[in-house]
């Protein structure tokens, strides 16, 4: 079951944002990380088997302020699982044609004048 976690972190510049993203990606089970919200101060982490408390503690060690906003299931996974997959349509490639050159052995072009 995939989780979607939103954490508010005090990130003032691009360097701190990159550092926060690097920390989040290092946690086992994380599949994607993105910045959301006004001012890009919230991180959205999606993955399977993520410990949200451990991730928040790791961010607090580096940034001193990290607030766990929400933890829930990823709704995109449920939508894709509900739709049945259509079978793949494919055609066989056209057959290869083999060209053969037939030469007449009785004709000798080397002897033109006799």
Automatic annotation (TrEMBL):
Annotated Gene3D superfamilies: 3.30.70.100
Domain of life of the organism encoding this protein: Eukaryota
Name of this protein: Uncharacterized protein
Source organism per UniProt: Penstemon smallii
């Amino acid at each position: 079951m995939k989780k979607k976690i939103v954490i508010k972190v005090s990130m003032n510049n691009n360097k701190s944002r990159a550092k926060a993203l690097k920390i989040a990606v290092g946690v086992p089970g994380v599949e994607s990380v993105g910045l959301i919200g006004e001012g890009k101060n919230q991180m959205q982490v999606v993955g399977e088997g993520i410990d949200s408390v451990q991730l928040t503690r790791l961010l607090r060690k580096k940034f001193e302020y990290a607030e766990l906003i929400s933890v829930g299931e990823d709704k995109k996974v449920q939508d894709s699982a509900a739709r049945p997959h259509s079978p793949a349509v494919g055609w066989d490639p056209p057959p290869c044609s083999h060209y053969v050159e037939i030469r007449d052995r009785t004709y000798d072009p080397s002897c033109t004048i006799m």
